[in-house]
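Budget justification aside, the reviewers requested a transparent look at the raw inputs and outputs of the sequence design task funded under Objective 1. We therefore reproduce one unedited record. The lines immediately below are the structure tokens for a 346-residue chain.
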């Protein structure tokens, strides 16, 4: 099954319509970087997926798997080597000039490092309203009232409008970042490890806030994360990446039943998403191959206990339909036929 077919059936959103609206389509994205020594680093390799209206989609994987590179292409910070990002019928990676700038209103981002995301000399009022001013959507005299409105939405006091980022806690700064991202009323919100630097108790309040705001606004969320328990609690679907490739796409509620050996290894290396008695943590042996010297065949072959030499070291595994909304790229499922009532999906 091709990656294009995968994107047609990877939705598992509670309460969604039979044919959910596709807000964003990532279409066979490839990103290669040429190095000074002439070698080529492949950060993303033929990545495809859909983002649906009102859902939370997690992209998970170890550091260096390509998560942030995908986000930067969606945000128009990187130009893809090939492939596209389709929003409302247009490939936004090909937009330039004022058209590209205007499109940024539709896709906003909450960054991991808020120390670099905020100008320390700007007040909270100015930070929240800066996007509106940049697009000519507000008069300066109206900024304080708008900032107070957004502070209320993210459950912060109105008197924060005249504070500065240095006078706030990490959780409070994260709420300000969410307010700034949502002030333009975007269709898509990208959270890049947005809770990883927060205490667990603060994480929960921020996640609860995001879910409430999503319910109120209908915004679709791409959640870059390495915490599988958090993904299980917050997201509708999860895309698992390894060495620039999507190796599994599944409902977040099915994480504990993941089929791909890499996803299973990730689950065994952390506390279970559904705790049941004692749990022995197991680390994943070996190192991720260098993206400068990618192996032929399956990218996970050297760390996989199920590696089949004559297949895994020769052929890239296709995405196989292994569940109601689940797909895995693994030769263990060659010839596997998922039986369901919707025969038109095959």
């Amino acid at each position: 099954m091709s990656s294009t077919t995968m994107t047609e059936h990877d939705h598992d959103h509670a309460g969604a319509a039979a044919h959910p609206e596709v807000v964003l389509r990532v279409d066979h994205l490839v990103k290669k970087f040429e190095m000074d020594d002439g070698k080529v680093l492949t950060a993303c390799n033929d990545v495809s997926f859909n983002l649906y209206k009102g859902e939370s989609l997690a992209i998970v994987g170890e550091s260096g798997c390509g998560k942030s590179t995908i986000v930067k292409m969606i945000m128009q910070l990187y130009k893809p080597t090939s492939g596209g990002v389709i929003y409302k019928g247009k490939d936004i990676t090909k937009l330039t000039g004022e058209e590209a700038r205007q499109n940024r209103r539709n896709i906003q981002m909450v960054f991991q490092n808020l120390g670099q995301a905020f100008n320390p000399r700007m007040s909270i009022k100015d930070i929240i309203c800066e996007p509106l001013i940049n697009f000519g959507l507000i008069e300066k005299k109206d900024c304080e009232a708008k900032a107070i409105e957004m502070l209320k939405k993210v459950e912060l006091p109105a008197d924060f409008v005249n504070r500065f980022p240095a006078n706030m806690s990490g959780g409070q700064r994260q709420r300000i970042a969410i307010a700034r991202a949502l002030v333009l009323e975007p269709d898509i919100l990208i959270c890049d490890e947005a809770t990883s630097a927060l205490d667990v108790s603060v994480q929960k309040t921020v996640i609860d806030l995001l879910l409430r705001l999503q319910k109120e606004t209908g915004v679709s969320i791409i959640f870059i994360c390495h915490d599988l328990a958090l993904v299980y609690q917050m997201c509708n679907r999860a895309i698992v990446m390894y060495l620039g490739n999507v190796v599994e796409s599944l409902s977040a509620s099915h994480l504990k039943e993941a089929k791909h050996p890499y996803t299973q290894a990730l689950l065994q290396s952390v506390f279970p998403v559904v705790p049941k008695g004692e749990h022995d943590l197991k680390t994943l042996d070996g190192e991720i191959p260098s993206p400068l010297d990618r192996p032929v065949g399956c990218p996970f072959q050297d760390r996989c206990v199920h590696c089949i030499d004559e297949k895994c070291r020769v052929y890239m595994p296709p995405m196989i339909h292994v569940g109601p909304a689940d797909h895995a790229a693994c030769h263990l499922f060659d010839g596997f036929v998922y039986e369901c009532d919707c025969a038109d999906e095959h």
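The radius of gyration is 21 Å. Residues 1-17 have pLDDT under 50 and may be disordered. Computational costs for records of this kind are itemized in the attached budget.
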